[in-house]
Design brief:
The chain is built from four helices and seven strands. The chain is of the alpha+beta class. The protein has three domains: about 45 residues, no CATH class; about 60 residues, no CATH class; about 35 residues. A four-stranded antiparallel β-sheet has the order 5-4-6-7.
Length: about 160
């Protein structure tokens, strides 16, 4: 886990929030050389932001045997809504499992649990082709060709 260590060799007063209220944040760690550090983890930082409970109806890529990737099918404010929306949408027509999770509100956006799907071999191959095409197009533009010239070379004029 990533951490931030703030090292102190002198006087420390307290940690406060924006309202000037004393808060417990991070963990104090004493070092053998007489120094102290305030160790702050990523979880400490996330807990500082406003969080809210959400209810997730989980789906699965493999609706036959359930051996696929679990993913949030619906993120809802109510367990009843999650259960209703997930009804008969899971493996073999069963109801989706519903769990309560924490979402974080940061900058007006809600961040909820998700699963990042890895690219397939075909996607990786297509990404490489697209990147080579982008590099070639950049070279062509730097060499003086216009967007219309490049479109003509691609047979899209």
């Amino acid at each position: 886990m990533k951490t931030i260590n703030i090292i102190f060799d002198g006087r420390f007063v307290e940690v406060e929030n924006a309202a000037g209220e004393s808060i417990s944040f991070g963990e104090w760690v004493k070092h053998g050389d007489g120094l102290w550090s305030l160790r702050i983890t990523a979880n400490d930082v996330l807990s500082f932001f406003h969080d809210k409970s959400v209810f997730i109806a989980w789906g699965n890529d493999d609706l036959t045997e359930g051996r696929g990737l679990q993913y949030p099918l619906f993120v809802c404010a109510s367990p009843t809504t999650a259960a209703r929306l997930g009804s008969k949408r899971y493996v073999q027509g069963c109801d989706c499992p519903v769990t309560e999770e924490k979402a974080f509100i940061f900058g007006g956006q809600v961040y909820a649990p998700t699963r990042i799907r890895p690219p397939s071999k075909e996607d990786i191959s297509e990404d490489k082709i697209a990147e080579k095409s982008r590099i070639a197009q950049d070279k062509a533009l730097k060499a003086g060709l216009t967007e219309e010239d490049i479109a003509a070379l691609r047979g899209r004029a």
